[in-house]
Fold:
Amino acid sequence: MSAIKQLTGMRGVYLVAAELSRLGFIASPTSRSAMGADLLVTDQACLRAYSVQVKTNASTFGFWLLSEKARTMVSPHYIYAFVNLRRRKDKEIIEFFILPSSDVAEMMKSGTSTTRKWSEWHQLDFVDAKPFENNWGVFGQPVAQVVAAEQPDPAGGARGITDKAWHGFHVVFRNKDRASV
Structure:
């Protein structure tokens, strides 16, 4: 892979991570050798976690190339972020298309080259991704609310529960020495 293509891919990963952070999620890039996951994402209470595969285009915008494994790597917690970095006169337009892996598996197209022997390709077309533009809601809310409920103590008494607000989410302290969120 050329250095320019690698830098374009890395830029897409960091742009998606920045947007998720702006929305209130915790997003962490993985090692570049992690198969299938460019980002690990969680809500602020770490109740929901996602693996995110980022595909970035800076020159062709009609499709994104995929691995053949995109057809079988399907999970409610596996998300694709397709990014287009378009140059228009003196500005750049960044487009995000956020799709669950199940939709990618259904919509991806495959084919073989008519000019190269044994050349096979897999792609997601822009027209199929367009309805998913800025579909960040697939990650849910970045701040999970936890509702405290009085729990009976196995010894017959009531557990003491104290509620505290902490960094934008609700923390429930039980017995004053253990925390759950």
About this structure: The chain has two domains: 3-139, 145-181.
